[in-house]
Amino acid sequence: MATPVKVHGPPMSTAVSRVLACLLEKNVDFQLISVNMAKGEHKKPEFLKIQPFGQVPAFEDGGVSLFESRAICRYICEKYADKGNKGLYGTNPLAKASIEQWLEAEGQSFSPPSSVLVFQLAFAPRMKIKQDQVVIKQNEEKLSRVLDIYDKRLGETRFLAGDEFTLADLSHLPNTQYLVGVSGKGELFTSRKNVGRWWNEISSRDSWKKVVDMQKSSA
């Protein structure tokens, strides 16, 4: 039996949960290895060998080690193209290009303000760090502008890259889960008809439900 791939990091991490969702969509067996970040395990020499920046996730597949969640997801989709959801990363150049442009939109436009909000609203209170209301307001406004563009797009297509669920949609799940489910900012998504419909659909996928269950059991 083949050795399952290894994912190092806590499922509460948005980047770790992105990789877990991708593995579940692709039906790839994996081993989740706990990393106690409160104890600094992500900064120890043995961890830095597989993740030189001391962040999570770190990923191992046989003799291959990778970091950065979006790169890991692309690798999983290419390496295990014939498993699970075969269209997750597109099956032709045009489909891939459409997925890539929305992955770029997620990484460059959606992730910066949404990540700030996730930290300020979901993690800062747990870490007993004072919330910065000015920063929250600024990033809500930035994210609102992005979601206006998304709402227009999602009025034309069922999902971001077309009419099939892809890695472009999956990559939005981690941050949105915190904003809708924990931070009380769900109206940013649900107040927009098409974005709300899209979120309800992508967050109802079995793969993501399993990730959320993993987060709950590790909390």
Please state the CA-atom Rg, rounded to the nearest Å.
17 Å
Determine the fraction of residues in helical runs and give it as a percent range. Answer: 40-55%
Q: What's the SSE pattern?
A: EHEHEEHHHHHHHH
Can you count the helices?
A: 10
The amount of beta strand, in percent, is 5-15%
Gross morphology: globular
Major sheet characteristics: 4 strands, mixed
For the termini, the CA-CA separation is 32 Å
Name the assembly state. Answer: single chain
Which strands sit side by side, in order, in the main sheet? 2-1-3-4
Query: How many β-strands, per DSSP?
Result: 4
- Rounded mean pLDDT is 94
Low-confidence parts: none
**Secondary structure category:** alpha+beta
Subcellular location: Cytoplasm, Cytosol
Protein name: glutathione transferase
Main location: cytoplasm
Catalytic activity: RX + glutathione = an S-substituted glutathione + a halide anion + H(+)
